[in-house]
């Protein structure tokens, strides 16, 4: 257990073999954080302190702006949202749960993901000796070096202004892929 001192977005866990899931901790404005969860062509951004979540489903192809902002009930993933808790999971054994009351989130992976994921959460192979692996395959015993190695964006102190909704769904997909602060392709 260690404190995360970074003010940047960091990769917590990703399936690097099948790309079945990605989990990123994003730093938002005013020291707030969000959790970006991607699985099954669906992205869910969870804002624990705001007790909110937002979903984008990239399998929709309709040409209107509202299609990508669906409620969790319309998702292809299993989801459960209560007053103070949200849980999302897929059929391949990835589960993310956030308790809004305690600002506490968990990521659970089934045995199918043994040894094929990596990130700040480690390698998920039950080997204590390689938990502090950095993306290039080397190891560190320095928390700051480990955290910096899994950063997914450059840190910026200037908050971005929200842009109006694009005209088509395809333009909105491009915006989410290339302009959102949590995107790996930014």
UniProtKB/TrEMBL annotation:
It holds the Pfam family VWD. Residues 1-166 form the VWFD domain. This is APLP protein. It comes from Dicaeum eximium. The gene is Aplp_1.
